[in-house]
Amino acid sequence: MPTQEMVSADELRDIMYGVGDVKLREKREAEEKQRRAEKALHDEFMKREFAPDLMKRLSMMVSSAAQRGEKEVLVFRFPSKFCTDRGRAINNADPNWPQTLEGAAKRAFDFFQSELKPRGFKLRAEIVEFPGGMPGDVGFRLAWA
Predict the structure, then answer these.
(1) What range does the domain containing 99 cover?
(2) What does the longest C-alpha to C-alpha distance in the chain come to?
(3) Into how many domains does the chain fold?
(4) H or E segment at 61?
(5) Which residues of the chain register pLDDT less than 50?
(6) CA-to-CA distance for 48 and 50, rounded, in angstroms?
(7) For the chain, which has fewer Cβ within 10 Å, the N-terminal or C-terminal residue?
């Protein structure tokens, strides 16, 4: 039998743990990058203001939908994790769900209350997707019929 050089068990463990350390470090770096991106998104959501021509845009949106025979339209969508209860109240149709809103969602609801509700519109909030069985995005639907 020819003599071939074989790596030792110690060398294999060094290789294995070294690779594991690199993979672990890469995973942690990716998770940290994801956390920073999510924080930036949340920060932007919290301070976002609506365009000055919002009423004009909404008017065009609902008029187009009505012409197609629709009775409601999705006007706003955001991650449920941006609610104080991560969307639980909306998902359970709790009448106090507006109290869980923050940032742009709160401003959108306040805009509805002051500008759209007096014009006869209704607002329905719902969880529009359930990734992994958990509440995902919230959708605000504006209805007129």
Answers:
(1) 51-143
(2) 92
(3) 2
(4) helix 54-67
(5) none
(6) 7
(7) N
**Domain shared by 69 and 112, yes or no:** yes
Environment class of residue 108 by beta-carbon count within 10 Å: exposed (0-12), middle (13-18) or buried (19+)?
Answer: buried
Does 96 lie in the same domain as 82? yes
With contact defined as beta carbons under 8 Å apart, do 97 and 88 qualify?
Answer: no
Which pLDDT score, from 0 to 100, does residue 5 have?
77
- Strand order in 122-127's β-sheet? 72-79, 137-143, 122-127
State the CB neighbour count (10 A cutoff) for residue 55.
14
Q: Residue 9 has which token pair? A: 């068990």
pLDDT at 7: 76
The pLDDT of residue 107 is 95
Assess whether 42 and 55 both reside in one domain. Answer: no
Is the domain of 58 the same as that of 78?
yes
pLDDT at 2: 54
Express the helix, strand and coil content of the chain in percent, nearest 5 each.
60, 15, 30
Is 50 within 8 Å of 118 (Cβ atoms)? no
